[in-house]
Amino acid sequence: MLKGRTAIVTGSTSGIGLGIARALAAQGADIMLNGFGDSGEIEQIRTGLERDFGIRARHDGADLSRADQCTALVGNTLAALGRVDILVNNAGIQHVSPIEDFAPERWDAVIAVNLSSAFHTVRAALPDMKSRNWGRIINIASAHGLVASANKVAYVAAKHGIMGLTKVVGLECAETGITCNAICPGWVLTPLVQRQIDARAAAQGVSVADAGRDLLSEKQPSKRFTTPEQLGETAVFLCSEAAANMTGTSLSVDGGWTAQ
After folding, report:
1. Model confidence at 249: pLDDT above 80
2. How far apart are CA 208 and CA 195, in angstroms?
C-alpha cells in the first residue's frame, strides 16, 4: 500500500516508534529511523528492516530537544531518501513530580521533546508534502492528551498541546491531500512505561508484576497493555485511502481509559 512512500518516525529505535516503523515498512514504505541507543543495536534494527521488508532504511540521531536538529532531520531525509510522505511524531520523554517540586529544566525538556519537536518537523515537512499534494502526519499523543493525571504536569500539558497542533494542521491542510491526526494510546508496555512500573514497585515494596497490574487497574478497564504492533497497524490505517477524509481528529487506543 505504501510502496514508493517515505516515512520519518521519530523515537523509533524502540517501543511504540519501532512498532510503527515496522508496520509502515511492511507496507513498503522507506523509513527514516530516529532515536538514541547503542549504535550497533540501531544498525541491526536498520538492516533488519531492509532485509525483512525489502525497503530502504536510514537512521538519523537528531536530538529533538533542539529546533535546528528537528529541521535537519527532515532535510537529511529528503537528501537520503528523496521525499517525505509520512511524518510520525512519536518521540517522548517523561518526568513525574508534584508541581511545586517539578524542576523548571524538566518542564522545558518535556515540552521541547514532546511538543515543540512536532511543530518543527511538521513545519519543515509540509512544503515537500504540498509539492505532491499528499501527506500523512500522525502525532502520537496519549490518553493524557484528553484527560489528566496528577504529578505529570509537563507530559499532560505537552500532549494536550499535541492535540491542538493536530487540529490546526488538519484545518490548514483540509483542502489538500494532506491529513493530520493523532493516536492516543493508554498504557503501552514500552521502556518508558517499564521504568514507571519499576519505580512504582520500588516505592511500594511490591513485585514488578503486581505494580504493573495495579497500574492497569487504576486507569485501563481492559486491564491489558496496548502493543506497539497494534499502534503500528493504527498508523497504517491512517495512511490508507479509507482515512483520506479523516483529519484534525484523534483515535483512542486505550482499553476504555477515556470512556470512563
Report:
1. yes
2. 10
**How many CB atoms within 10 Å of residue 31?**
30
CA distance 173 to 132: 13
Instruction: Give 100's contacts (C-beta < 8 A, 6+ positions apart).
Output: none
Task: Specify the DSSP element, H or E, that contains 252.
Answer: strand 250-253
| Interacting residues of 135 by C-beta distance below 8 A, sequence separation 6+ | 84, 85, 86, 87, 125, 126, 129, 173, 176, 177, 178, 179
Q: Return all residues near 32 (Cβ < 8 A) that are at least 6 apart.
A: 6, 7, 8, 9, 57, 58, 59, 60, 73, 76, 77, 80, 81
What DSSP character marks residue 70? Answer: H
Mean pLDDT estimate for the chain: 97
202 by Cβ neighbours in 10 Å (0-12 / 13-18 / 19+) ranks as: exposed
- Report residue 176's pLDDT band, with 50, 70 and 90 as the boundaries: very high
- Grid cell digits, residue 247: 483529519
Q: How far apart are CA 62 and CA 74, in angstroms?
A: 10
Give pLDDT, residue 32. Answer: 98
Is 155 labeled as catalytic in the residue annotation? yes
* DSSP-derived 3-state class of residue 220: coil
Q: Find the catalytic residue in 155, 187, 225, 257.
A: 155
